[in-house]
Amino acid sequence: MVIADILALTPDEAYKKLTAKATPKVSAEDIAKQIDPLQHDVFDESKRPKKTVKKATGKDAAGNITYSDKQEEVARIAVPLQMLIVERTIGFVLGNPVKLRSDAEGDKQIRLVDMVKKLWKDNKLDYKNRELARTLFSECEVAELWYLAKDEEYWENANTNLRPKCKLLKPSDGNKLIPLYDEYGDMMAFSREYLIERDGKKITVLETYTAEKTIVFEKGETVTIVKEETNTSKKIPVVYYQQKYPEWHKVQVLTHLAAFHPKFIKKTPFFTSK
User: Which Pfam families does the entry mention (predicted)?
Assistant: First the structure.
């Protein structure tokens, strides 16, 4: 089904089609627990219970020492190896900022390159690249949403008053990111679902971007289209990034061993130093 056919459906039916998404390899809940040291299993008393020790309480009538059981806290130290892996990966990928190079010829091309460099600097893309990478490597998906804002004084000697700006869309900020592809893997639409509160009621909002238009749905008791605009750029204004697993996925089991079986770690040559 092409995007035009989906948008021709009733708002309720279109909403269902646009929000359908495959189940991720690792759930957002599991990722949150793995990357947050305070949510590690080492703090879960059902998995790492307190230690039962016997304490002498005195002697009985026969002179034998009497004991009672007492619960003592065990060591609970969580090591944020997952975030360390993410930060090290960011260092390898973006330790040196991205450099823009061009083979511009003539005044128009040079002017265009200068405009791109200005947008790069003013949108703080060196910083956002690191934030983007951090989100991708840990949350497994992130998107750049590009939009136009009016600014009469932004450009000099340019026949436009529109300034391109960039916003990062992250699952941890409450965004459900939903790309929609055709049978060849080309993106037909991109949707962002999130919650807002209005008059004490929670409303689900769905922003859908296609090459032709931008549509905003609101879902309360029913689904309604509250906004529809033509996309003059004729391009989906979103860059979507995704990976199947977080960066630490292959060593997640080792972090569990380090927390629950320290003797095993000490006996493993990989973890010992001389």
Answer: SPP1_portal (PF05133)
pLDDT of residue 262: 57
> What pTM does this model have?
0.83
Alpha-carbon span 144 to 179, nearest angstrom = 12
DSSP 88-127: HHHHHHHSS---------HHHHHHHHHHHHHHHHHTTHHH
DSSP strand pairing (65-72 vs 51-59): antiparallel
Question: Tens digit of pLDDT for each residue in 94-127?
Answer: 999 899 999 999 999 999 999 999 999 999 999 9
The residues spanned by each domain of the chain are 1-23+143-238, 26-38+76-139+244-274
First to last CA, the chain: 62
Nearest Cα neighbor of 180 from 210, 207, 213, 147 is: 210
- Mean pLDDT of the region 170-194: 95
Spatial distance between the Cα atoms of 274 and 264, rounded to a whole number of angstroms: 17
Show the tokens assigned to 10: 């009733």
